[in-house]
Amino acid sequence: MLELRLVQGSLLKKVLESIKDLVNDANFDCSATGFSLQAMDSSHVALVALLLRSEGFEHYRCDRNMSMGMNLNNMAKMLKCAGNDDIITPSRPMMAVTPSPSCSKVQVRFTCCFAQDKIADFEMKLMDIDSEHLGIPEAEYHAIVRMPSSEFSRICKDLSSIGDTVVISVTKEGVRFSTRGDIGTANVVCRQNTTVDKPEEATIIEMNEPVSLTFALRYMNSFTKATPLSNTVTISLSSELPVVVEYKIAEMGYVRFYLAPKIEDDDEETKP
Amino acid sequence: MLELRLVQGSLLKKVLESIKDLVNDANFDCSATGFSLQAMDSSHVALVALLLRSEGFEHYRCDRNMSMGMNLNNMAKMLKCAGNDDIITPSRPMMAVTPSPSCSKVQVRFTCCFAQDKIADFEMKLMDIDSEHLGIPEAEYHAIVRMPSSEFSRICKDLSSIGDTVVISVTKEGVRFSTRGDIGTANVVCRQNTTVDKPEEATIIEMNEPVSLTFALRYMNSFTKATPLSNTVTISLSSELPVVVEYKIAEMGYVRFYLAPKIEDDDEETKP
Amino acid sequence: MLELRLVQGSLLKKVLESIKDLVNDANFDCSATGFSLQAMDSSHVALVALLLRSEGFEHYRCDRNMSMGMNLNNMAKMLKCAGNDDIITPSRPMMAVTPSPSCSKVQVRFTCCFAQDKIADFEMKLMDIDSEHLGIPEAEYHAIVRMPSSEFSRICKDLSSIGDTVVISVTKEGVRFSTRGDIGTANVVCRQNTTVDKPEEATIIEMNEPVSLTFALRYMNSFTKATPLSNTVTISLSSELPVVVEYKIAEMGYVRFYLAPKIEDDDEETKP
What we know:
Chains A, B, C: This protein is an auxiliary protein of DNA polymerase delta and is involved in the control of eukaryotic DNA replication by increasing the polymerase's processibility during elongation of the leading strand. Chains A, B, C: GO terms for molecular function: DNA binding; DNA polymerase processivity factor activity. Chains A, B, C: Its main location: nucleus. The structure is a homotrimer. In chain A, the strands form 3 sheets. A 9-stranded antiparallel sheet of chain A has the order 6-2-3-4-18-17-16-10-14. Chain A is of the alpha+beta class. The C terminus of chain A is likely disordered. In chain A, a hairpin with a 2-residue loop joins strand 12 and strand 13. Chain A contains 5 helices and 18 strands. Chain A has 2 domains: 124 residues, Proliferating Cell Nuclear Antigen; 128 residues, Proliferating Cell Nuclear Antigen, CATH 3.70.10.10. The interface between A and B is medium-sized, with 19 and 20 residues. Strand 9 of chain A pairs antiparallel with strand 13 of chain B.
């Protein structure tokens, strides 16, 4: 049996919004320590890893490890109803997985109490999804950039109106985002900046050695759907590893996106 | 001759917005006591009844009873121009029906004075529309639910992301809205609640006997277009009668929607 | 060499937004006195003339006259990235045209410093565009109407939901905008009004002789895209000349739109 209750009704909704464009169906793995998910996107290019630790929930109980296969779009529809903050009474949706008495299939149930007088509950069947869990080893990165998540989002959006790929280069000068398309080129340089009013506005660059890698902007723009989850984003780069774009979820865990760099090929960017 | 002037320029616009998706063409019936409309939706499933009593108008004069056939979309276009509140000077549109001297057809004329210096007028030809006026007898209902209109709107919208029909059940427990679809089931229960800060936030349930009826959510969602007209909605249910969804228009009248329940059929909801 | 810097990052963006629906590709003509453009719309019916005088720029340097052919949509994309006001640090984009060392083609470069720590630059290739510069002689107009630009925009939008053309008539009574369509007719009359709180809310009519001209509303609605550039619009009418719809750009210049009147033809407006 699994039971969990969130303080913020909208958090689980934001988590789903951040990943449901990349992943259609996925297994949520639940254990006594928390709630996690690992899934490849449908074209098997990007990997999403989510962790929500049990101590971040208002209530969390998981009697035995279980893996719950869900269609993320359907789950998002359910949560849109259950976990809404903008309703007069804020909701604290409760999620419970129990073998349903009426049906042989295991079901997940979201219950949502809006004050005393209104209760909503939603039941969704679970799916069997084949998936293999990849071990992601801790790694050393050539460079780690921490910057405001809204700024990273804006840069990715701006560059994608000009080109299809972004070259992210970290040097002593700072971090440079470049693109090239039919209409021209664009470069945005962000320098280290720690003298800011609020710590979340800082741009902090830790560099062991310079690195320059090319990525598909389409994926980067998908990752920035997680911007509402965190004020800052951390981008870890290494020439031999996929980039990690991480959004921390305060006191609970993270959403991490992994994406392999494109092999740089001069012909590729100069379109015919 | 008919002449009427509204204090709130946007009221007639909101009334039209609330019904023009259901009804394309309709006769407005005018008499000394007021302005009314009764029309079936184009698939002859739902009925709309509108009443605007003469005393609610800033100015109202109707010399003889008349029936004016109008295309509601065209009328909405005209009113969008004439009766706008968000313009600097609020308008009080005047509507007049007079035989036009230039043309044998009867025309309706909307005139709108924005302060001293700007006058807009719009003329629209009237149509001949065949319609029979149904007598709707006063009836006893098994249950009458009054609740905030925004909450009813939200519930209908939420449920329609999961299923196509809603079962509305009134018991001693409260009123329950349920749906079932391919992705799962949803139930929202609202209990009687009169201990609220503002009377319009109350949920009041008058029940003579329990009732449970099934309706198409598509129609319910159309009815909730009238939400801007009133803070509360009244839903009158009886197993032998169409449901009445009523939005009162302060000091003037109402918009009422009538919809026959679906015959409950267990096969129908379990889609193949 | 040309270098210019704007105080308001968004001004050049607004200028482009106001004309890019009418004109795809155009030559910007630069000289020591300023920056100008003259172009026909793609169907050769309307003419756009833009002037931004050098003294309106924070920094302006132009060593020799040059004509820069640009695709306005591409330029708008670049400026959307470079010149954004809604970012935390307001930007003052710098535009420079220099023979690029890496390429035989002349390029335009937009550079944008957001405070100390973020720099964006964008390079776009210039195009060769054939164009002939029309001399537009100063003319006497029968009537000149100055009114709030938002009101003119609203009238054009409202009328275009009813008809395709607008008749603009200036008489002693005021200025009248009329249209006629399948669903009916509309007339909006604005009288001279100088007793307003703010000078930009005045409607001022200078009339030498009455004039009544018909124009395509589609073009008028395109012209009103320039509304964000100015609180007022000036409409100069003469029966022998194209109408001039002018939006002044404070302390810098103007955007002017010229449109030939339609030859009035009674059959044309009464559609079959």
